[in-house]
What does this fold into?
Amino acid sequence: SKLSACSSVTCARLQRPAASGSIAAQTQPLARAADPTVAQADAQGRWQAWSQAKVDAALARGESVFVDFTAAWCVTCQFNERTALAAPEVWQRARQSNVLMLRADWTSRDDAITRALAALGRSGVPTYALHRPNQPPVLLPELLTTSIVLAALPQ
It folds into this structure.
């Protein structure tokens, strides 16, 4: 169920089926593409689709990789994508530091993404990981702020 796959307490609470006509039913998360901020970031080519091969290749080149493990049904994920992960300062730092920004969309429970989450000790989304060459991944908290993301990204 959606409930068991969401690692955030807030996300888990909000993923329960809502009664028809309730406030929760009226505020279910919209599809990612319907949000202009997220759609604009994707349209500008900021996010690339995740694959383990992309992570491995970037690390082999000496580049850092930020991975946003997300899902369309995860409320916390959607909030973070519209706030901290959409901040111009985050994208400026990522460009300046040559950080590859990957989005691992777990909406359909992709097996490769499930394995990558398990390798990080996680069983659901949201999960945010910064991979740096020759270092263990840094996991960020489930609820992000711009300052948390900036503090994690290389300078």
Notes: Residues 1-5, 8-41 have pLDDT under 50 and may be disordered. The chain has nine helices and five strands. The beta strands are 48-49, 65-70, 100-105, 127-131, 138-140.
